[in-house]
Amino acid sequence: MSINALLSTIILVTFIVTVVLAVGSYVAYKVRERRHPDTTRLASDEPVFFERFFPGEPASSANAASTEADVATR
Description:
By secondary structure, the chain is mainly α. 68% of the residues lie in helices and 0% in strands. It is built from 3 helices and no strands. It has helices at residues 3-34, 39-43, 61-73. It is elongated. The mean pLDDT is 79.
């Protein structure tokens, strides 16, 4: 088998795999879009996808020193 035939085969297989993956991704996207969201979660004030994060107070130096000592003893 010549190098030209080998490279042509590799390019052809890569192209076919790319097309199959693109079609599969599109079908998965359409199936996901067709699914209806849960209406009980939409009625509440809770976020659907993310939980809100409120940063607390920064750790004091005494707490930081004790956690470093705890990590060192493990």
